[in-house]
Write a structure and sequence with these properties.
The protein is mainly alpha-helical. It has 15 helices and 3 strands. It has a 3-stranded antiparallel sheet, with no helix packed on it. Helix 1 (28-40) runs antiparallel to helix 2, helix 2 packs across helix 4 (92-111) and helix 5 packs across helix 9.
Length: 363
């Protein structure tokens, strides 16, 4: 044991109780993971929401890296600079989506005290009218041509299969029928039943319900909302033709729509098939899965006028989302007025007021 006396002026040794150190600053990637983790536990959290947030925040992270900024050093001027730069690169709709994402990101970080303020709170976003996109729908002729092409593809592939010899020729013929039937099935569920692309590809084999009045599809869509859609019209034969072909491909996948190898179909494959179909049909607008759903919504609302029913079929959370499909053109308004009984009678009688007024006018 050390018994050396301590000098009287020597400082007394104190136990090391641990020094208070400044907390390590959260990195951008760590903050993104915290934010994404929060969305997984919200009512609207989904794989698609997570993917969209990652893409938008990755773009914002590139801006921070380019300008040498961190999360805590972004102020109002830097936020305005990001908005200005983004406005030169993307359409107004994309600008609004990305800035809204970053704004929510900062609101979350402020709530958990990673940043002191939200520099995006007071930004004025570019105006965007959601109804401006609703004109991108298929006309009745375009929809009919597209449906006829898909049916012809299935019929032709079926004829080839019936006349094919056993072996490679028959294998190729079945592959053509398999692809044609699946393409028609996915198309009709989007264009004639209003399903989203993700909802179509997420359909399970037990999603098809049999009821006394016919067949229905029951599935969980966006926002974890379960809804039921009747399987009628053109969608009915297309769906059951596909199921008749699908049973010949062994697969452990629970999804209704699968590839020839038994795997689930990817969204980008449906997007490519829609684009090719639009080119074959000669549509005015680029054909996408959402254009098909938008076409269904517009036609359904125009024919029924039941906006609440359309909201239920489409699975919209609010009536405002459905209202963007209530647009009509001037010709449609004219036909509506002329179809009324009073308008028809007055039109048939011809001008009534003008001749009387003419008698009173000075010559």
């Amino acid at each position: 044991m050390n018994t050396t006396p301590r000098p009287p002026d020597a400082p007394r040794a104190r136990p090391d109780l641990g020094r208070a150190t400044a907390p390590r600053e959260t990195t951008f990637d760590e903050a993104v993971e915290l934010f994404i983790g929060r969305t997984r536990h919200t009512r609207t959290g989904s794989r698609h929401t997570e993917r969209a947030y990652r893409i938008d925040l990755q773009h914002y992270g590139g801006f921070l890296a380019t300008d040498g900024l961190s999360l805590g050093t972004v102020g109002r001027r830097a936020a305005e600079r990001y908005l200005a730069r983004l406005s030169t690169e993307a359409a107004p709709r994309t600008v609004r989506r990305r800035v809204s994402c970053v704004r929510s990101f900062y609101r979350f970080l402020r709530g958990i005290e990673i940043v002191a303020s939200n520099p995006f709170d007071a930004l004025d976003l570019p105006a965007f009218d959601r109804k401006s996109e609703t004109h991108k729908v298929l006309s009745d002729d375009e929809l009919e041509r597209a449906a006829a092409l898909l049916s012809a593809d299935v019929a032709e592939a079926n004829r080839r299969l019936e006349g094919a010899e056993r072996g490679p020729e028959r294998t190729r013929a079945f592959a053509s029928l398999f692809t044609a039937a699946r393409r028609r099935g996915t198309f009709t569920l989007m264009a004639f039943a209003g399903l989203r692309c993700a909802e179509v590809l997420g359909l399970l084999r037990d999603s098809i319900l049999t009821r006394p009045d016919g067949f229905y599809l029951s599935f969980t869509g966006k926002g974890s909302k379960t809804r039921t859609v009747p399987l009628v019209g053109f969608a009915y034969p297309a769906m059951f033709d596909w199921l008749a072909v699908r049973r010949y491909v062994p697969s452990s996948a629970a999804e209704v729509f699968i590839t020839l190898s038994g795997c689930r179909v990817l969204p980008r494959q449906i997007a490519r098939e829609c684009k090719r179909l639009g080119e074959r049909t000669g549509t005015r607008h680029r054909l996408t899965p959402h254009v098909l759903r938008r076409t269904f919504a517009t036609r359904l609302l125009a024919s029924s006028g039941d906006i609440r029913g359309v909201q239920e079929l489409l699975g919209h959370a609010t009536i405002q989302t459905t209202e963007v499909y209530t647009h009509v053109d001037e010709e449609g308004l004219r036909e509506l007025v002329e179809a009324t009984a009073l308008g028809a009678r007055e039109h048939a009688r011809g001008p009534v007021l003008a001749p009387r007024m003419a008698q009173r006018l000075p010559s």
